[in-house]
Amino acid sequence: MPDPFADQPDWAPRPPRPTALVPAAVAATLRGRRVWVGLPGTGWRGDLRGDEKVVQRSRTYVPVLPEQEWYRAESEGVEVFAPLVPADRVWVEQPDDTLTDPGRGDVLSRLVSLDAPAPRFPVPVVDAGPLVGRRLVHVDDGQERRDLRAVTELHSGADGDICVRAATELAWYRWVWTGQPPETIELPVHLVWVE
């Protein structure tokens, strides 16, 4: 198979790995992992975090929290209510370098099965539309840094590069419950993708 990155300039990093969604039943650990919930044929909801599976009356469940509540509970040490979702309705995100992006072709090439949530393919930040609040992946020296949120749109940085400012997800969500603006980092656009 030909290398899809053969024509890529030396200065540009390879894109981050896409994210596969696997059934919670096959995941070894769930605590703090990004999860999706839903029902085949109906739809899916993301921006959630899971906790370890629990069994009640021979049925397996996954405690699931909105990310904001999960970060608040972990950071502030507070108790929060986590609804128990049947494990067969929970999928776990995990980077997967075996997936191939179908591209952004015509509508027929974008069709997916409704049996499970579709894989998520990173999009270069310059092609992603509005950015504030979106999940980012920063790739630098071959290392992927996830769990970032955009806090600005594209802008000209201090040295003239086109950049986006980002905060860690913990700082992004803490901004909500404390009102304290997050510390941010300025990232050059050629090193950033939207998840």
Short description:
The chain is mainly beta and 195 residues long. It has two domains: 19-95; 122-194, Roll (SH3 type barrels), CATH 2.30.30. The protein has helices spanning 67-76, 169-178; strands at 19-23, 34-39, 43-50, 54-56, 59-66, 84-86, 90-95, 123-124, 135-140, 143-150, 155-156, 162-168, 185-188, 192-194.
| E-strand count | 14
Average pLDDT, rounded to a whole number, is 90
Quote the distance from N terminus to C terminus: 26 Å
- Poorly predicted residue ranges: 1-6
Structural class: mainly beta
Q: What general outline do the C-alpha atoms trace?
A: globular
Cα gyration radius (Å): 18 Å
Reported for the largest beta sheet, the result is: 7 strands, antiparallel
Overall tally of domains: 2
Q: What is the helix tally?
A: 2
Helix content percent band? 10-25%
How would you characterize the overall build of this protein?
The protein has 195 residues and is mainly β. It has two domains: 19-95; 122-194, SH3 type barrels (Roll), CATH 2.30.30. It has helices at 67-76, 169-178; strands spanning 19-23, 34-39, 43-50, 54-56, 59-66, 84-86, 90-95, 123-124, 135-140, 143-150, 155-156, 162-168, 185-188, 192-194. The strands form two sheets. Strands 1, 2, 3, 4, 5, 6 and 7 form a seven-stranded antiparallel sheet that branches. Strands 8, 9, 10, 11, 12, 13 and 14 form a seven-stranded antiparallel sheet that branches. β11 and β12 (162-168) form a beta hairpin. α1 (67-76) crosses α2 (169-178). The longest helix has 10 residues, at 67-76. The protein is globular and about 60 Å long. The relative contact order is 0.18.
